[in-house]
Amino acid sequence: MRIAAADVIVTSPSRNFVTLKITTDDGVVGWGDGTLNGRELAVSAYLAEHVVPLLIGRDAHAIEDTWQFLYRSAYWRRGPVTMAAIAAVDMALWDIKAKVAGLPLYQLLGGASRVGLHTYGHASGRDLPELFDSVRATLAEGHRSVRIQTAIPGVKAVYGVAAQAQASGERYDYEPAGRGPLPTEEDWDTGAYLRHLPTVFEAVRNEFGAELPLLHDGHHRMTPLQASRLGRSLEPYDLFWLEDCTPAENPQALEVVRRNTITPLAIGEVFNTVWDFQHLISNQLIDYVRAASTHFGGVSPLRKVMDFAAQYQIKSGFHGPTDVSPIGFAAQVHVGLSIHNFGIQEYMLHSDRTNRVFDQGMTFVDGYLHPSDRPGLGVDFDEQVAAEFPYQRAYLPFNRLPDGTMHDW
Ligand code: CS2
Ligand code: MG
């Protein structure tokens, strides 16, 4: 079975998505996700200009060989654009292989290790009453764990606070990226954040009790000592994890954090390969792997990093925002269902418009996410509907400190 055609489709139903369609010479179609929030056209050009010509005529079943070929033959390895492009190919080929086998992908990965995936949803608020309502709404959607993000006194717009984001311009799917010609400028004050956040977790614990698993995303903004202080001050509130507390480029930072706090740590949504996790996993500096199939080279490397992590009792917590398309999301739900060391799955619901383009078989019942038993990934892509929504320029925001210094967003 040979690859006969490969087409790249960029569509923007509620946000931009990059989708790869691979068709075999006997007419089987596989779908892959190469979406890179705010830099979508770079991946689509990388695929169309440099990868598609290499795919035509290749054995559609040779997934590992094709992955290694695209990774090694480029010479310029890794990086978000390259790895999102390779991810799209890898997913589409797994979709094809599973469709030919007549099985949902998780069966090819070893079968189901559990009935479904526990998820966490997002809750946020400008004040405590709004945050409590948001927690209740998240629980009502079926999530059993909740990520808490909150406004900070004196800071105008903080990452992850949906109502704030919506008030400051056109946003989509509660995600921070705005569609427009220029990125939005936000502000940040780490001191105010470190003082305020523990008071919010105390209030949430008092309102919702000791058992509800709570998470928090630091979005790469702290120094190692600031993160240590935050981890320590949140220990009484028993977090499921503190995510991305320090910038992702410096794995040694987490050695400092680890020495100073027993709050569990998660990182990796901006990582591209297993090498980014090597130091963190082998030194047991993290508890959860935050990679996303779409930004990590697809299903194949996600399996490998989780097998590596398993040797150290480190679990999965795959990145699942709406900037991963339903195809990329399904791919990692299949991985999560099959691996032994599954931890939790982040789950943000896609908009109705997105779901018109992507027909998802996935189900979310009694707090369990299941990728469906459709053959393949379980997602169909409607090219006609996609064509109704052309690409729209969109950027993630950026941050400045009160004195104007640029800061991590
Ligand atoms: C995030 C994302 O889901 C998360 O934990 O940190 O919302 C992230 O900001 C976006 O994926 C950026 O595109
Ligand atoms: Mg995050």
TrEMBL record:
Q: Which domain of life is it from?
A: Bacteria
Is tRNA processing there in the keyword field?
Answer: no
Domain (Mandelate racemase/muconate lactonizing enzyme C-terminal): residue spans on this chain: 129-264
**GO biological process, alphabetically ordered:** amino acid catabolic process; carbohydrate catabolic process
Q: Which Pfam families match?
A: MR_MLE_C (PF13378), MR_MLE_N (PF02746)
Q: Which UniProt keywords apply?
A: Lyase
Return the EC number.
4.2.1.8
This entry's Gene Ontology molecular function terms read:
magnesium ion binding; mannonate dehydratase activity
Kindly give the PANTHER family that the UniProt entry links to this protein.
Answer: D-GALACTONATE DEHYDRATASE-RELATED (PTHR48080), STARVATION-SENSING PROTEIN RSPA (PTHR48080:SF6)
Q: What is this protein called?
A: D-mannonate dehydratase ManD
Source lineage: Bacteria, Bacillati, Actinomycetota, Actinomycetes, Micrococcales
